[in-house]
Amino acid sequence: MDCVRHPLSPGSVFWLRPGQVHQLDGVERVEGTLVLFRPDFLTPGGPAQTAAADVFGPTCWQQAEESRLLARLALEHLCREYAEGGGAPAAVRVELLRQLLAVLVLRLLPSGGPAGGAAGAVRDDVFTLFRQAVEQDFARSRQWPGTPRNSATRRARCPGRRWPRRG
After folding, report:
1. Would the pTM count as exceeding 0.85?
2. What sign has the CA pseudo-torsion 104, 109, 115, 118?
3. φ, ψ for residue 89 (rounded to 5)?
4. Which of 27, 50, 154, 156 is the most buried (most CB within 10 A)?
5. In the chain, where are the structural domains located?
6. What DSSP assignment string belongs to 2-27?
7. What b/e string do you get for 95-131 counting C-beta neighbours within 10 Å, with b at 16 or more?
8. Adjacent-strand bridge partners of 13
9. Average model confidence (pLDDT) for the chain?
């Protein structure tokens, strides 16, 4: 949850990850395609799955003009396969959808690639450690590590950090 307004225009990509809190204003005036999927549907460990599961990835960006056509073609291919299936056996069809979705995800990423080109990068600043602690269980529990129930786990999640004693 970034609490930032993201104005949308033609070519915008708005990426809402699982568990994120959001508020959409004026959505009745927005035209576009909504693609819903679970990150675990993508091939585990692949670049598309890594990007989709990255809770620190960007939320909104303008897609580069040169990649819009290829993203649109990937979306159309995915939609057609989903709707028609081409008579393929179920296992083959699932794999086709998985691969086509991966192509779409990769085509929609900002030009720097997953996480702005920083896939796998580890940041050790205070903000990132705090955000990791909040995001780790927030999608499931809607509790953050500063609540009394979770204050003991706070120290374990950020080893080497000194936390002020409460009261």
Report:
1. no
2. positive
3. -60, 155
4. 50
5. 12-117, 122-167
6. --------TTEEE---TT-----SSG
7. ebbbbbbbbbbbbbbbeeebbeeeeeeeeeeeeeebb
8. 61
9. 76
